[in-house]
Write a structure and sequence with these properties.
Mean pLDDT: 95
Number of domains: 3
Bound molecules: flavin-adenine dinucleotide
Low-confidence stretches: 6-11
Structural class: alpha+beta
CATH topology of the largest domain: FAD/NAD(P)-binding domain
Radius of gyration: 22 Å
Number of strands: 21
CATH class of the largest domain: Alpha Beta
Number of helices: 14
Oligomer: single chain
Strand order of the largest sheet: 8-7-16-17-18-15-19
Length: about 425
């Protein structure tokens, strides 16, 4: 049993109850605990991490849905010991499958060696590529907070207004952003499009050597023993108390709801939160189908997978020695039966060797990210009055960064309330 759950001894009556041990709840609880406040975390699941968890399956590490942390997320460095996480980085850029072969595409400003390959790749006109380079240059120089305040519209409308052709959109931008924002229709906020493109241009996608679940595990380990109570589903909250499915009524001056958006909306009577689903299919292969550590994009639009990673090329620890782990992401879809279609698709990319791949698992997450349609406003209020607080990716940006930031911001609001009432 991990240390944070080792002791079942009750702390003195907590000053704050946090409902949910995802990244937001853990970040919030840790900040409160570090400020010397008594806090208890009630988690419905059998482990911490929420949407960021990892499992061992036949010697492979499988995250519960393919996802990556972007090293340019400011909250990663602010809240985590990155060295201890042993981040394994993707190479910037991508391989794009266009129907015949995979083309290498990269940002020549970061990797001059990619310039020629990118110029030759049939993923857009020369004008598209020049426009993209200029956009990346501009975004690099702009503070993300400014980008989150710019006029908002859908990502598709912003791409069109930027003058990109449908060739670049369909072969590159849609599979890339549809994959990251779990929204192949590109209906999400152009503010998020700019922020993510900037994050990609200034950092790297990365996974911890031990799996994405190492991120919440590190946050939880920093909590005093006994802080997190697993298997404890909260059915109702009210000012000063939370009622659990086990029939307990726990009291505390402040209650923070750190569940996903739809559950938080139900518990707190907030407006409904839209859901973007995602399906990830994991395969064991005898050998890597592609070399290198780049994400592979479906530039044909045929799907069902929009992007694919040979994850053991990036993080060899994810697979037993001599084995290969491939994950295919079907963003925006909840399809438990999609594995055969994905395997048929990847056979078209990489040939008959794909027939020998072993399907390890399919993860379907109905609420993978909250919707962020325009007009999208990050930094939604976390203090709801009467001692009730809320945090999670639905209060800030729909991402690991947003969840961590939201938890920290919410803890600061609770600390301010505690200080004001002292
Ligand atoms: C497949 C997939 C791909 C993704 N890709 C990326 C990516 O590449 N990059 C990125 O930045 N982000 C990505 N995300 C989004 C990111 O994982 C989330 O934004 C983030 O983890 C949300 O954290 P959270 O703490 O707000 O919510 P959650 O992780 O949902 O945590 C909420 C917690 O509350 C618990 N809970 C719920 N109801 C109750 C209850 N009634 N009582 C007690 N506990 C309860 C849950 O069990 C859970 O542990 C992806 C997500 C998925 C699923």
């Amino acid at each position: 049993m991990p240390a944070y759950d080792r002791s079942r001894t009750e702390p003195d009556r907590p000053e704050a109850i946090v409902v949910g041990a995802g990244l937001a709840g853990l970040a919030c609880a840790r900040r409160l605990a570090e400020a010397g406040r008594r806090v208890v975390v009630l988690e419905a699941g059998d482990g911490v991490g929420g949407r960021v968890r990892s499992d061992r399956v036949d010697g492979f590490t499988l995250d519960r849905g393919f996802q990556v942390a972007l090293t340019s997320y400011p909250e990663l460095a602010a809240q985590l010991d990155l060295e201890a996480l042993e981040l394994r980085r993707f190479d910037p850029g991508a391989l794009v499958f266009t129907g015949r072969r995979c083309w290498r595409v990269g940002d020549p400003l970061r990797r001059p060696g990619d310039a020629l390959a990118s110029a030759l790749a049939p993923i857009g006109t020369p004008a598209d590529k020049a426009r993209l380079a200029l956009l990346l240059l501009r975004l690099r120089r702009t503070d993300p907070r400014t980008l989150l305040r710019q006029p908002d519209r859908t990502t598709a409308a912003a791409i069109e207004a930027l003058g990109f052709t449908s060739l670049l959109t369909e072969r590159f931008l849609r599979p890339l952003f549809g994959g990251i924002q779990l929204d192949p229709a590109l209906t999400t906020s152009s503010r998020m499009f700019s922020v993510i493109l900037r994050a990609l241009a200034t950092g790297y996608g990365a996974v911890p050597a031990a799996g994405m679940g190492a991120i919440p595990a590190q946050l939880a380990t920093a909590l005093p023993a006994g802080t997190v109570r697993l298997g404890c589903r909260v059915l109702a909250v009210e000012p000063g108390a939370a009622r659990t499915a086990g029939g307990d009524r726990l009291e505390a001056r402040y209650v923070v709801v750190a569940t996903d958006g739809p559950v938080a909306a139900g518990l707190l009577g907030l407006p409904p939160v839209a859901s973007r689903p995602a399906t990830s299919v994991w395969f064991a292969a005898a050998a890597p189908p592609a070399a290198g550590r780049r994400i592979v994009l479906d530039g044909t639009g045929a799907g069902p997978a929009h992007n694919v990673a040979v994850l053991s090329n990036v993080a060899p620890e994810y697979a037993p020695s001599g084995h290969t782990l491939v994950v295919a992401a079907c963003p925006g879809a909840a399809r438990p039966d999609v594995a055969p279609d994905v395997q048929a698709q990847l056979r078209r990319w990489w040939g008959p060797a794909v027939d020998g791949w072993r399907h390890l698992r399919t993860d379907v997450v109905d609420h993978a990210q909250p919707g962020s349609s325009p007009p999208f406003s990050p930094r939604r209020p976390v203090a709801l009055g009467e001692g009730l607080f809320v945090c999670g990716d639905h209060r800030d940006t729909p991402s690991i960064q947003g969840a961590l930031f939201s938890g920290r911001r919410c803890a600061d609001a609770v600390l301010a309330a505690l200080a004001a009432s002292a």
